[in-house]
């Protein structure tokens, strides 16, 4: 990777600062730190007494707020300093990296970016660099997968993914009792194996390529318009791009892949011109932890529990229970096996999850419901063994990337999270080969960067894939409308469909098992009609009403996804610029030019004839 230190290269032109890429400051949304400090100071000013009467806890809170404010100000100063310092450095860099460059620079070293780097380097022989200030850190989230999907991915990607499974279960349990005359203890067992991914092993496998250069640094830029950024950290040219990094170095690349997540600042997400607006994102929130359990688990140790939507664990507090019915959460349970050397003790991962909501349910609410459920079920856990705490935040839905962008969004940055379920890992991995193939093919043919980027986007969001997503977008919106009774009835009916139908909907991506049952408008319509016959009639009536409201608010996208009406979603295919000589009415312009030329020739001929007449004859 052509990563060269700027100060050594262009010291005569500009001196770039070298920043610590590993500052462990808390990353809050823009403005959050300053607003936190403002609230803290405002509360303090309204408190009785003078400032000297502050308690120790108030002083700590104020100090924390001021510290966050200081960190926020420091980050803003860093961005301004980098922008100013790199104005001249960008132009110097443009003349330095003429001979040595990477084919693809991938920003974001999570599973999506790391897999894309591996495929491009190992299977296509491309020069790749992977940029992320946290590249060496552990991936934070736990991943659960259907084993059938994982095996399909292993075959498609030609990777030994089986070695990356930590625990496997032959069956999957669900609990939807407590409504629609189903007893509270009713269990629906799915005869479909599930597994937990060992994320450390997966990362080790995908980072095994020696051909990928890893750069632990930041890219300080934000898209303010299509292909225009608020700093010179990213600049495009006709043949590629230059990235200036926060550590004072630079990379020239033919293409950039953005794998920085759903809330990326490098990719704009807006509906295509003339398309109806998309619903705002919903949010899946979960609190999870791994803990040692002594004695009975309540849940079957041989099964993974995917859903437990019961609410009787909150019956001791009627107000809390009513809130849980209106804003449902479910328990997700992964028995991880016995504790070595301890009889009747096992490790278990529990997670209380809000499937999708707008606004999001709080993490504290999920945490309290989690431990209230464990206590109600008589599960004896050791508080001191709590580990691997997870605060899962998954935005779902929202608009797709704006067409025409040079940077290729991938994974959550490309809105690939399933809008109804929050599943993303297997969908992203299923798309990765197609996207890598499109990038490698375009580069191999010498296509312009914009053309290659368009072909990559087309590989992700073909018209067919967009239509399938539109159907799932409505599903997510409808699920947000249901209370706990509605969700119990919905999922009890959903999982009583044939496995190929429900499994295909959960997968929701080409090449994953069962997806063929959802790839055409007729297949989706057939699926919907079969589902309506399985769910309780009151839920079915709510569904019909929701279809009408959704279509009135968001246009024809849902109807287009289940009928042949209203055409197809817009294409991401590249449209090359029109040659200058073909712009406008060529015939009219050609005629005008010919007439003007003929007129000039006539004038010249008349002038020449006049000049040839003898002077005496002219006087006569």
Structural class: alpha+beta
Outline the biggest β-sheet: 8 strands, mixed
Radius of gyration: 30 Å
Shape: globular
Low-confidence stretches: 1-66, 94-99
Q: If you average the pLDDT, what whole number results?
A: 86
Total number of strands: 21
Helix content: 40-55%
Distance between the terminal alpha carbons, to the nearest Å?
Answer: 86 Å
Strand composition percent: 15-25%
Number of helical segments with 4 or more residues: 18
SSE blueprint and pairings:
Layout: E1 4-5, H1 6-10, H2 32-46, H3 56-94, E2 102-107, H4 111-123, E3 128-131, E4 144-146, H5 147-157, E5 165-169, E6 171-175, E7 188-190, E8 194-197, H6 199-206, E9 212-215, E10 223-225, E11 228-229, E12 234-236, E13 241-244, E14 249-258, E15 282-294, E16 303-308, H7 318-326, E17 330-338, E18 345-357, H8 363-376, E19 380-381, E20 387-396, E21 408-409, H9 425-444, H10 449-460, H11 463-481, H12 484-494, H13 499-507, H14 521-532, H15 537-554, H16 557-562, H17 586-612, H18 615-619
Parallel strand pairs: 2-3, 2-14, 3-9, 6-16, 14-21
Antiparallel strand pairs: 1-14, 4-8, 5-8, 6-7, 10-11, 12-13, 13-14, 15-18, 15-19, 15-20, 17-18
Concise synopsis of the structure shown:
The protein has 620 residues and is of the alpha+beta class.
Please describe what this structure looks like.
The protein is 41% helix and 18% strand. The longest helix is centred in the N-terminal third of the chain and has 39 residues. Strands 1, 2, 3, 9, 12, 13, 14 and 21 form an 8-stranded mixed beta sheet that branches. Strands 15, 17, 18, 19 and 20 form a 5-stranded antiparallel beta sheet that branches. It is an alpha+beta fold and 620 residues long.
């Amino acid at each position: 990777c052509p990563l060269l230190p700027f100060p050594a290269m262009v010291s005569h032109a500009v001196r770039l600062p070298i920043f610590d890429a590993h500052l462990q400051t808390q990353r809050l949304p823009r403005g959050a730190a300053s607003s936190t400090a403002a609230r803290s100071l405002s509360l303090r000013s309204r408190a009785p007494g003078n400032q000297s009467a502050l308690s120790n806890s108030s002083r700590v809170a104020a100090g924390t707020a001021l510290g966050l404010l200081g960190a926020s100000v420091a980050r803003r100063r860093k961005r301004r300093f980098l922008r100013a310092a790199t104005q001249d450095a960008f132009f110097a860099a443009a003349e330095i990296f003429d001979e040595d460059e990477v084919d693809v620079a991938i920003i974001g070293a999570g599973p999506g970016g790391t897999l894309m780097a591996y495929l491009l380097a190992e299977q296509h022989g491309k020069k790749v660099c992977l940029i992320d200030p946290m590249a060496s850190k552990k991936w934070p989230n736990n991943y659960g997968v259907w084993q059938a999907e994982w095996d399909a991915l292993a075959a498609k990607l030609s990777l030994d993914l089986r070695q990356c499974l930590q625990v496997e279960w032959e069956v999957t349990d669900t609990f939807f009792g407590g409504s629609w005359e189903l007893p509270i203890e009713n269990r629906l067992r799915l005869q479909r194996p599930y597994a937990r991914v060992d994320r450390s092993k997966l990362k080790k496998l995908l980072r095994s390529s020696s051909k990928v250069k890893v750069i632990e640094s930041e890219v300080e830029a934000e898209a303010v318009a299509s292909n225009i950024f608020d700093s010179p950290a990213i600049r495009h040219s006709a043949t590629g791009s230059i990235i200036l990094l926060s550590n004072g170095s630079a990379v020239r690349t033919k293409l950039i892949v953005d794998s920085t997540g759903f809330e990326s600042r490098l990719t704009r997400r807006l509906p295509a011109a003339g398309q109806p607006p998309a619903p705002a994102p919903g949010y899946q929130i979960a609190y999870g932890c791994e803990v040692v359990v002594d004695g009975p688990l309540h849940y079957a140790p041989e099964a993974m529990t995917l859903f437990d939507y019961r609410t009787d664990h909150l019956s001791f507090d009627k107000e809390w229970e009513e809130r849980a019915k209106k804003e449902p959460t479910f328990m997700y349970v992964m028995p991880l096996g016995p504790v070595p050397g301890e009889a009747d003790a096992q490790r278990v991962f529990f997670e209380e999850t809000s499937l999708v909501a707008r606004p999001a349910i709080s993490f504290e609410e999920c945490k309290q419901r989690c431990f209230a459920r464990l206590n109600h079920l008589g599960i004896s856990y050791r508080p001191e063994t709590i580990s691997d705490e997870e605060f899962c935040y998954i935005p779902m839905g929202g608009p797709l990337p704006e067409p025409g962008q040079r940077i290729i969004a991938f994974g959550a940055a490309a809105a690939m999270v399933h809008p109804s379920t929050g599943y993303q890992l297997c969908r992203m991995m299923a798309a990765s080969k197609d996207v890598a193939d499109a990038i490698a093919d375009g580069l191999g043919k010498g296509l312009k960067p914009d053309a290659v980027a368009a072909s990559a986007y087309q590989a992700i969001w073909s018209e067919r894939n967009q239509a399938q997503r539109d159907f799932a977008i409505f599903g997510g919106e409808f699920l947000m409308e249901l209370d706990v009774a509605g969700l119990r009835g919905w999922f009890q009916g959903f999982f009583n469909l044939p496995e190929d139908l429900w499994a295909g909907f959960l997968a929701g991506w080409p090449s994953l098992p069962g997806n063929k049952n959802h790839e055409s408008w007729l297949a989706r319509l057939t699926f919907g009609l079969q589902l309506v016959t399985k769910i309780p009639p009151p839920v079915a009536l709510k569904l019909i009403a929701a279809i009408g409201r959704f279509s009135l608010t968001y246009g024809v996208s849902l109807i287009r996804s289940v009928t042949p009406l209203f055409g197809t979603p817009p294409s991401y295919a590249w449209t090359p610029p029109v040659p200058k000589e073909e712009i406008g009415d060529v015939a009219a312009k050609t005629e005008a030019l010919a007439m003007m030329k003929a007129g000039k020739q006539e004038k010249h001929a008349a002038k020449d004839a006049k000049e040839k007449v003898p002077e005496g004859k002219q006087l006569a």
